Amino acid sequence: MKKVLILLIFLILILSIPQKTAELTINWDTDYKDKKKYKWVENPQDIIDTSTIVQIQKKEENSIRWWEYPDTIYPTKRNGDDLLVLVNKQYKLPSSYAPKDLVKASKSGIRRGENYYLRNIVIPDLTRMITDAKLEGVDLSIVSGYRSYQTQIDTYNYWLKMNNGNTNLVDTFSARAGHSQHQLGTAIDFSTNEIRDKLGDEFSNTKASKWLSQNAYKYGFVISYPKGYENITGYKHESWHYRYIGVENAQNMINLGKILELYLRDYNL
Ligand SMILES: [Zn+2]
Questions:
Q1: What's the predicted TM-score (pTM) here?
Q2: Would you tell me which of 176, 193, 239, 246 could form a disulfide with 204, CB atoms 3.0–4.6 Å apart?
Q3: Å from CA of 228 to ligand 1 middle
Q4: What is the pLDDT of residues 99-112, one digit of tens each?
């Protein structure tokens, strides 16, 4: 009799376990599907006064510190060799990245080219550009080309020292290591004999600067940090800094009416 009772209890227990589980699963499922129950999650605007949120958002937009680095830094989405790789304050090149086809910039015939290196892929179009500019009476020289990860550390630290350690200021015009387009070997800082080959803001008033802004894209070069887009690029306007992305890409970019930063973002999702 005792044995039968134990067996019965055991049987009841066995039978009840799967039923309980099934019941729980169904309830869990129904709760999630019960849209009425979770309406507040889907339509918060029904219960929250959004006007205050909009006010806060507007305040933040106006006080945006565009030169700052984001909290999260990602590795670049494309390889450094890719002409369309996005390198900015959010996306960083590996410290080990260096192009394999570096040659002296003088191979293109550009003045001061013996002091700098560029990727060989840039040379044919740069040669055409220098030649055509010269035919139109425009002189171009190079004042910076490829910079290694280590050189960029030194460059950034140099500017930091020159500006009493003010990172907020230096971040408006100098990239930290891994974040510089110069590490790609496709970025060039141009100057001209009009300003005795100096680097900087003076360049924007030269014939060379005007000629580049109108013609460089035809040779695959586009300005990286245009005027008025600081809050998108993260850098002050640099009239002298161009990046080579190839003739076809440059033409596409111009046709789309995009600045380089936004054109590249589309290719680096
Ligand atoms: Zn530059």
A1: 0.77
A2: 239
A3: 18
A4: 999 999 999 999 99
